[in-house]
Amino acid sequence: MKVIRNYLYNAGYQILAMILPLITAPYVSRVLTPHGYGLNSFTNSIVFYFVLFGSLGTQLYGNREIAYQRNDREKMARSFWEIQIIKTVGILVALGLYFVFLGFYRDNRVLMIFQSINIIAAAFDISWFFMGIEDFKRTVVRNTLVKVVSLILIFVFIKNPSDLPLYILILGLSVLVGNFTLWAPLKRILVKVSYKDLHPLRHVRPTIALFIPTVAIQIYVVLNKTMLGFLAGTDASGFYMSADNLVKVVLAIVTATGTVMLPHVANAFASGKDKEVNNYLYSSFDFVSFIAVPMAFGLAGIGRHFGPYFYGRGYAPVGLAIMIEAIVIVLIGWSNAVGQQFLLPTKQVKPYTRSVLLGAIVNIVINIPLVSTWGLYGAMLATVLSEATVTGYQLWYIKDTVELKKLFVNFPKYLIAGILMFIPVYLLNVKLWTSVSSLILEVLLGIVIYFVVIWVLKPTILQTAKKFLKK
User: Cα(225)–Cα(45) distance, rounded to whole angstroms?
Assistant: First the structure.
């Protein structure tokens, strides 16, 4: 039950991290116009490269390392400070390089300076530590107040397109303050260690090893926005971000299992429970399939009219973009289960790295021709093909370690239920005038159809759910 509780907390945390821009999006997208909204997307995509560089691979590595050592409080405390020292130094270097970059890149100067707050905020992000000790409640609760306050500030102060710099400032400060709040509980959790006993350099090599796949992942996540900004204009970059934000909110619910299971599996692996590790993968992969399929088909079903209705006039291209990208909910869900819940905690970093590097290479190779030919929709297609490459390689790699048949034993049933759900939902979305009530009707219809079909087909996850409920 602890895993389920942590999953719910982490799903809440992941959604919370994205909920501010999503809740305010219908308002902000109209106030800032597609041009202003696109400028935010484009400038943020540039600063993100520096955040990525400065953070190295500490998010994944720190989570896993703390999970390995959480039974020894002194070792855990030393590892925390050593990893945090590496991250702080990396962020300072990245911040310096960013301002060197601004010396050459003079477009949107005020926006770019305000975006730099995100680099500073990254230095204080220690969410990886709480994920490692499987304390997800603390992270969610402490960030909620900050997110609510920033949401109020946006509605109070953002009134016209000229307020774009203030909007970026509010978003950046909300991340910074939210990260600050995570430091207060450390006094009660960490034991005191002497700075003479700290040896941060021992973490450099494994951190960089995880930095490589982290960079590869983010390259084909952020590169599309950057390339759209250069090749198709900042408006297209804004459309991409708009569609991607909606997909990623849904995806956060699916991938929340990864952050929860990584420390759990890592701890089991460190204890030599290899069979238990495989069983975790089978259960997690099946659960991911169970929730990812209806979410992908459901979002695709309502996406055509929901996107432009949600963001407002001028955002018509977002609808089809959502429909194209929706499939990555399943693909990323699978790669998250295999990569972050199996390969990383069992110290199989090299195949994980190869998989995401392949995805990045595919994205870079096909991005320019696809974006040049189809613009926004080409970028979406590039995203789908890149994620398919990552997932395909990971599944191929583990075929001799686990039974692939067990991973997909229930997937045909989920797929049938998803397709049968999609057809009436999509037809309703096309024929009905889009409103809150019609969207609620479509979502409820989709849920009912999916679960009725699941009940008829009876996948094994129903038996698993009954066992959990009896505990």
Answer: 7
Query: Residues 366, 387: contact at Cβ < 8 Å?
Result: no
What lies within 8 Å, CB to CB, of 164 at 6+ separation is: 32, 36, 39, 40, 111
Give per-residue pLDDT as tens, 160-184: 999 999 999 998 998 898 888 888 8
Among 206, 292, 280, which Cα is nearest to 254's?
Answer: 292
How far, in Å, CA of 143 to CA of 383, rounded? Answer: 30
- Residue 259 carries which DSSP code? H
| pLDDT over 70 at 113, yes or no | yes
As a 3-state breakdown, the chain gives helix, strand, coil percent values, each rounded to 5, of 85, 0, 15
The two tokens of residue 412 are 């045909």
Q: Per-residue pLDDT for 260 more than 60?
A: no
Banded model confidence at residue 469, pLDDT cuts 50, 70, 90: very low
What does the pLDDT look like over 335-386, one tens digit per residue?
988 888 788 878 788 898 899 889 888 988 898 899 888 888 998 999 999 9
What gap in Å lies between CA 357 and CA 354, rounded to an integer? 5
> What are the E-state strand segments in 15-113?
none
Minimum mean pLDDT among 60-69, 75-84, 185-194: which range?
Answer: 60-69
In sequence order, what are the residues at sequence separation of 6 or more whose Cβ sits closer than 8 angstroms to the Cβ of residue 461?
286, 287, 290, 410
Within 13 Å and on the Cβ side, how many CA atoms surround 435?
4
**Taking Cα atoms as reference points, which of 382, 366, 255 lies closest to residue 325?**
382
Which stretch of 151-165, 268-282, 424-438, 454-468 has the lowest confidence by average pLDDT? Answer: 268-282
Contact partners, residue 373, CB within 8 Å, separation at least 6: none
Q: Are 445 and 424 in contact (CB under 8 A)?
A: yes
Angle value at C-alpha 55, between 145 and 217, nearest 5 degrees:
95
What is the C-alpha separation between 375 and 373, in angstroms, rounded? 6
Tell me the residue type at 280: Y
Residue 457 CA to residue 416 CA, distance in Å, equals 9
CB-based contact 370:382 (threshold 8 Å): yes
- Sign of dihedral through CA atoms 162, 97, 204, 84? negative
CB 82 within 8 A of CB 265: no
Residues 306 and 435: their CA atoms lie apart, in Å, by 9
Query: What is the per-residue pLDDT across 440-468, written as a single tens digit (0 to 9) for each?
Result: 899 999 999 999 999 999 998 887 666 54
3-state DSSP assignment of residue 421: helix
* pTM value surpassing 0.70: yes
